[in-house]
Design goal:
There is one protein chain. This protein is of the alpha/beta class. The two termini are about 35 Å apart. The mean pLDDT is about 90. It contains 11 helices and 12 strands. The protein has a 6-stranded parallel beta sheet with strand order 9-8-1-10-11-12, with helices on both faces. The protein folds into 2 domains: about 130 residues, Rossmann fold, CATH 3.40.50; about 120 residues, 3-Layer(aba) Sandwich (Calcium-transporting ATPase, cytoplasmic domain N).
């Protein structure tokens, strides 16, 4: 708390810190006679028993559209690849482009182009095949924390904050876009975990006093290197163990309040020091110069 009031540079990790763990649905691409709702219905039915963030995003969108999900007759999960389920007599494959190729399906040219765009933009494309034919795909976009833009704007209004950064392992385009959208001054993209701390060390050599905010296993070294380190409740155990401060609501909305608290803490410490020092100086001076005894000194 004492060091926090000296911070002039704030560095954010991107994934999980500025963005939430669960993505949200973007466009739904159809390349057959099936509609968007058909593609989403089959994908949601296949994912209904999964609890990972991608599945939850698909299920949430299906619920938002008030779609009725058919029951699953049979299912098989290929770890790291995708799902194969039988729904209402149809065999449904849900997964990545690699999964579809692995099981022997050809990818339509339009979806190959969309996959390339998604790769460049840094988001996920989940493909859906119906009866062994790739029939559509669902875009899953990162969900930026709703409070992020306002929080960063308020932080930059503080007199002591001179610069804000994002450090991310993601591609440059999505990192640059996020930095621009939420008002962060600078960014480092495609950064390996071990290089995060190196970047922080280089900035420190230039005179920056750094507060790093991160939540992942990959952030632990960077958290340790920074003068002040902050993590979020619900983050990886190593991040919360390494960080000096943990925001217990699991978000960033109290970040400005934390800086206010640090300023109040330092003001209070200075006041307390002054209140203690003045009587001490008077007492010592009185003993040597005015002949104070114990009663006068106590008074």
């Amino acid at each position: 708390m004492e060091l926090l009031s000296q911070v002039d540079t704030i560095i954010f990790d991107k994934t999980g810190t500025l963005t939430e763990e669960q993505p949200h649905i973007g466009a739904i691409h159809c390349c057959s006679s099936y509609s968007e709702n058909d593609i989403l219905t089959y994908a949601a039915a296949a994912e209904c028993k999964q609890n990972h963030p991608l599945a939850q995003a698909i299920l949430q969108e299906a619920e938002k559209r008030q779609l009725t999900l058919p029951s699953i007759d049979d299912s098989e999960y290929k770890i790291g690849y995708g799902l194969i389920v039988v729904v209402a007599g149809h065999t449904i494959h849900v997964g990545s482009e690699r999964f579809m190729v692995t099981v022997g399906m050809s990818i339509p040219i339009s979806l190959k182009q969309q996959q390339q765009l998604c790769h460049e933009e840094g988001y996920t494309l989940v493909m859906v095949a119906i009866d062994n034919q790739v029939s559509g795909a669902i875009e899953l976009l990162p969900t930026v924390r709703p409070e992020a833009k306002a929080i960063i704007s308020r932080l930059k209004q503080r007199k002591n904050i001179k610069a804000t950064y994002i450090i991310s392992g993601d591609h440059e385009i999505p990192t640059r876009t996020l930095a621009r959208d939420i008002g962060v001054d600078h960014y480092f993209a495609e950064t390996l975990p071990e290089n995060k701390a190196t970047i922080i060390k280089q900035l420190q050599k230039k005179g920056h006093f750094i507060c790093y905010i991160g939540d992942g296993i990959n952030d632990s070294i960077a958290l340790k290197q920074s003068q002040v380190s902050i993590s979020l409740r619900g983050a990886s155990t190593i991040a919360t163990d390494t960080a000096q401060i943990v925001l217990m609501d699991g978000g960033l909305k109290h970040l400005n309040a934390l800086f206010d608290l640090a300023n109040d803490f330092n003001a209070n410490m200075n006041t307390t020091f002054t209140v203690m020092l003045i009587p001490a100086v008077i007492s010592v001076g009185g003993v040597f110069l005015l002949g104070f005894g114990i009663p006068q000194t106590i008074v």
